[in-house]
Amino acid sequence: MSHAHPELSVVIPVYNEEAGLQSLYDRLYPALDQLGTVYEVIFVNDGSRDRSAALLREQFQRRPDVTRVVLLAANAGQHMAIMAGFEQCRGDVVVTLDADLQNPPEEIGKLLDAVRAGHDYVGSIRRQREDALWRSVASKSMNRLRERITRIKMTDQGCMLRAYRREIVEAMLDCKEVNTFIPALAYTFAHQPTEVVVEHEARSAGESKYSLYSLIRLNFDLMTGFSVAPLQFFSLLGILVSMLSVVTYVGVIIHRLFNHEVTGLIDVIWDRDILAFFLIGLVLFGQGILGEYVGRIHMQVRYRPRYRIGTILESPAVSTSSEDASTLPASRPTLQP
Question: What pTM was estimated for this model as a whole?
Fold first, then answer.
């Protein structure tokens, strides 16, 4: 491929994927070559602690015409690594792909065809998941819950094989959120979203970087970042429980008075522990949800960089063409607020 303005950019975040990178290279480049379009591949090393960065440097030296490598100075997380890749990509269509080969690179053509058909955002639905049973069940359950809370209608929100038109990527880059969920953020800007069914495979090597705790944290980011429904839910629930507790309390008092189960006013007044444990648990859970929102505000108002780029490996011709091309957006600083 030449250094012409690419139609397609493929952004791949990499974190401790040393064991599977060669398999990725062996399948990715032939798959993209078969598309018959000008493309570029942007690898974003998210502070890997293994030899991933060295292997990415080697791959850049093999294919400098279509390969660019962004080396982050520290681990910033998958979604911020993708944002760093968005900042550097130049294609009219941008596809995100995980490095573990669970989403085959041969499926990129399906997404590109959907964008060419007029859609500005193309999600993917995994035909048959090859994850562990608990991950599949948890993912499906959380997808349903997240859709109800956020009103974002995506069948498979956990699949990162997605395609975005340039204007959607630019809109996401204009957002300065320090915590976000890219598929949902893109959906809020899309006018003609669609989904395609793609294949799903077992990991080629290594292990998942998302623990159960990480998945829970990611879902909290999604729900609190795109909806105030949890706060509204607990407000309504608090009103309902308060009304029910008052009715229950009055009913118990009347019952005891008519059945002579109390001997004085003090016995009636101090019978307040009927729903105490339930109400305390409800309050603590509601405070936890409120704390999530307060924590997001705290993270946002500190104005710390979302990520910090250490080095960018790119061909001089690519760098020059990206600066001179009038059709491309202006270059962005490497330090994002």
Answer: 0.71
